[in-house]
């Protein structure tokens, strides 16, 4: 995700802001910028690319002294990564400067209104509405102007604001995006995580949603959004720099799995309103989505598995047929694509060579390309007609975890949009959308069970083979579970539709070949149960994931992990962290580094 830092002191060199920003580089970003107060004005430097480039362009000013500064690393969500869209952003008077993490969902309405009353915008970002709103409310009181502006914002944010007329002051606030503030000797500091703070202090306050902080050289005050001051206590941090980068998690993979509830919030932001799915980005494709007979989808690896869930969902809930292909196969077959048809490309990186070549092939046949990716400005997005962004923030660990989860949610939203466009919307669609909106809370609950997953992983870590089985919606989950296990633990793991066992794979099973069964209490539960019994009678050990209303599965398995009960369609989402955590804990307990699996790269830009 984006990173924010801010520093107030009697005097410090601009270089300190750059050094603080460098501590946030591990989070991934595409542009960087800094704003500091000097001689009664705000100086802003920013550019696309690395903090190192910012350091170079600022070379002459690095030793300049200031009392107040903010800085930012941006991961593009609204507007391409370029110099203008980089933060900090300014108001019309160039006195107010803001850095922001998160997404302002109602920025289009706010921007239109602010333009009407004369504000001038220069970027494509959602963030730029914030300094202009503050400018609107400012009458000498910065804290109050920020508070009033925040009341107009819908969405999520962590912000830091400086004003040319208020040296020695930063106003910061958070809602749905982390922000930590700290008080050192004769300075105060803030950042979106602990790493930049550790140089100055170990005493920090983690702001809560709806809180606004006022930082001055010698004090930090925290207020509610109602303007009332709150009493906060400092937490003393004993983390090393290395563990602070990972927010205390041992590996990025574990951190990223634990970020999944936040990813659900981000991917849903601005996309559901009054009981309907809003996907403005694809409005030009609506006619084709309404009338086509089939929809083609291409993807690789984990993204292919999310596309398979999409196929089940759309076909079970509408009259549209969905053909899903592995990109490396699709691109070498004769394309049966007619001009005007849609090809959907799913790729978290937006750079995967085979998926890119597939969309080029389809484009040459006259197809419209709809891509789902996490990286704004990536090659696939530049060659697509429409793009839906995952907004999952950067994923550092090589194995896809939170991006898979975000793909699933976005594909369900796309599926529901198709259901609506084709006139297949019914009461069940309402219920599904409602359940999707309530996923973040349910998800926290699933993550709380990670100790159970760890103890089972420890028990099974020394097996050299695993067979994952599932039916219906459970089959893509089985494929993804097996992929996660093999890529980070190097244990041979294979996946089959459970009904296929008797056609060959069951011959492999025995005491040395355990089975991981994706077995929710859905319409196929009795079929799954009998498949499990077949495996059991070959003396295979069985681990199962099911839901907490399906205790009868316990009779036939060795170990079981429960998730909350939900709609049959949504188990692939709820079971995602379980298969990921299982693979993670096996790898960790084998002493392997799950963040850097051998032979693998985060983006596969060659065939
Ligand atoms: C597995 C994994 C890979 C990718 C695949 C496609 O954890 O990350 O299987 O899913 O290489 O990558 P994208 O989605 O970037 O096209």
What's the CATH H-level superfamily name of the largest domain?
Aminohydrolase, N-terminal nucleophile (Ntn) domain
Side-by-side strand order of the widest sheet: 3-2-4-1-10-9-11-15
- Enumerate the spans where pLDDT stays under 50 for 5 or more consecutive residues: none
Quote the average pLDDT.
94
Radius of gyration: 25 Å
The tally of beta strands, per DSSP, is: 27
Known CATH architecture of the largest domain: 4-Layer Sandwich
Which structural class fits the helix and strand makeup? alpha/beta
In CATH, the topology of the largest domain is named: Glutamine Phosphoribosylpyrophosphate, subunit 1, domain 1
Biggest sheet architecture: 8 strands, antiparallel
Instruction: Look at the structure and give the CATH class of the largest domain.
Output: Alpha Beta
How many domains?
A: 3
Bound molecules: fructose -6-phosphate
Kindly state the percentage of residues in helix: 25-40%
Shape: globular
Question: How many helices in DSSP terms?
Answer: 20
Give the N-terminus to C-terminus distance in angstroms.
29 Å
Q: Which percent range describes the beta-strand content?
A: 15-25%
């Amino acid at each position: 995700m984006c990173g924010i830092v801010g520093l107030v002191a009697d005097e410090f060199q601009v270089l300190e802001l750059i050094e603080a920003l460098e501590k946030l580089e591990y989070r991934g970003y595409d542009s960087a910028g800094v704003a500091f107060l000097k001689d009664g004005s705000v100086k802003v430097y920013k550019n696309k690319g690395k903090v190192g480039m910012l350091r170079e362009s600022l070379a002459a000013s690095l030793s300049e002294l200031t009392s107040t500064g903010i800085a930012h690393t941006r991961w593009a969500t609204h507007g391409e990564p370029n110099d203008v869209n980089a933060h900090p952003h300014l108001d019309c008077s160039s006195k107010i400067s803001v850095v922001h993490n998160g997404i302002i969902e109602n920025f289009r309405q706010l921007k239109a209104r602010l333009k009407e009353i004369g504000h001038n915008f220069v970027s494509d970002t959602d963030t730029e509405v914030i300094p202009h709103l503050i400018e609107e409310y400012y009458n000498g009181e910065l804290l109050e102007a920020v508070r009033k502006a925040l009341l107009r914002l819908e969405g999520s944010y962590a912000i830091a604001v400086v004003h040319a007329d208020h040296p020695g002051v930063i106003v910061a606030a958070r809602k749905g995006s982390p922000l930590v503030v700290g008080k050192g000797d004769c300075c105060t500091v803030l950042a979106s995580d602990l790493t930049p703070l550790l140089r100055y202090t170990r005493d920090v306050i983690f702001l809560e949603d709806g809180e606004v902080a006022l930082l001055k050289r010698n004090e930090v005050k925290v207020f509610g959004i109602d303007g009332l001051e709150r009493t906060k206590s400092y937490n003393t941090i004993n983390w090393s720099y290395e563990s602070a980068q990972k927010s205390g998690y041992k590996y990025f993979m574990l951190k990223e799995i634990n970020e999944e509830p936040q990813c659900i919030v981000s991917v849903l932001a601005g996309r559901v309103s009054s009981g309907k799915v809003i996907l403005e980005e694809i409005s030009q494709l609506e006619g084709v989505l309404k009338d086509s007979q089939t929809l083609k989808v291409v993807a690789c690896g984990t993204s292919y598995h999310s596309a398979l869930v999409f196929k089940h969902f759309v076909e079970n809930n509408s009259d549209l047929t969905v053909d899903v292909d592995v990109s490396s196969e699709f691109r070498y077959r004769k394309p049966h694509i007619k001009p005007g048809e849609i090809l959907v490309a799913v790729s978290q990186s937006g750079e995967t060579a085979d998926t890119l070549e597939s969309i080029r092939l389809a484009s040459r046949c006259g197809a419209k390309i709809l891509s789902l990716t996490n990286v704004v400005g990536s090659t696939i997005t530049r060659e697509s007609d429409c793009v839906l962004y995952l907004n999952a923030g950067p994923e550092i660990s090589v194995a896809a975890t939170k991006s898979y989860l975000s793909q699933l949610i976005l594909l369900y939203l796309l599926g529901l949009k198709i259901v609506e466009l084709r006139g297949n919307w019914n009461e069940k669609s309402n219920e599904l959308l409602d359940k999707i909106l309530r996923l973040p809370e349910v998800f926290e609950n699933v993550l709380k069970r990670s100790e159970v997953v760890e103890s089972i992983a420890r028990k099974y870590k020394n097996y050299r083979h695993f067979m994952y089985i599932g039916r219906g919606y459970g089959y893509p989950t089985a494929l993804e579970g097996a992929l996660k296990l093999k890529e980070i633990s190097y244990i041979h793991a294979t996946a089959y539709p459970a009904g296929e066992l008797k056609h060959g794979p069951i011959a492999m099973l025995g005491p040395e070949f355990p089975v991981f069964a994706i077995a929710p209490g859905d319409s196929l539960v009795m079929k799954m149960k009998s498949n499990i019994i077949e495996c059991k009678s070959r003396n295979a050990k069985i681990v199962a994931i099911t839901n907490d209303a399906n205790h009868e599965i316990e009779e036939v398995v060795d170990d079981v992990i429960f998730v909350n009960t939900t709609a049959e369609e949504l188990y692939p989402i709820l079971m995602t962290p379980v298969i990921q955590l299982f693979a993670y804990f096996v790898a960790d307990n084998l002493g392997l580094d799950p963040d850097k699996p051998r032979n693998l790269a985060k983006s596969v830009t060659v065939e």
